[in-house]
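WARN no homologs supplied; continuing
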Amino acid sequence: MNMGWLGFGSSANRARPPLVESAGWGGWTATWPRDSLAGVMMEKEGRGVNVSYLARGKNPRGSGGQMLADTLRAAGIHRPTAIRISEITNRETQEALIRGFSPGETKLGKTLRRTAAELGGRITNWSSGDDGLPWIKAQIKY
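OK structure emitted
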C-alpha cells in the first residue's frame, strides 16, 4: 500500500520527502526519489518503533532525524513513546558505545534527538545493548 509523499518546504539541511510503503512483514519502508542509497526500515514495537535500517544516502548531513520523523508521520506514527535503532553498523556510533559514551552522545543518538524534536517531543531516558550488533533506545515524552 503506497502511503504517498510527506513533507513541506525545503532548506539546505532538509531531505526531500520520502515515499513510504507498508511492508509485507508488518513494518514500513521509506525510499527517497533520486537517491537509491537513502532508506528507512521500521516496525511497531509496543507503543514505539524499532528502526532496523536508516541511511541518509546523498541527503544533507544532519538530515537523518528529519528523514526518520517524516517516515514515522507518513506511516501514521505521530508520537512514538520510544524509538529503538537496532542492528547498528555505523562505525562512529559503534566505537562511541564501546568507549562508554552515553547513547545520546553518539552520532545516531543525535539523530534520535532531532527526530524527537521534529515530532514535538524530548528524550527522557536512554538505553543500549548488543544483540550481535549494538542497539540504542530513546524514551520520548510529548
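The beta strands are 2-5, 19-22, 28-32, 35-45, 48-55, 82-85, 122-130, 134-141.
OK
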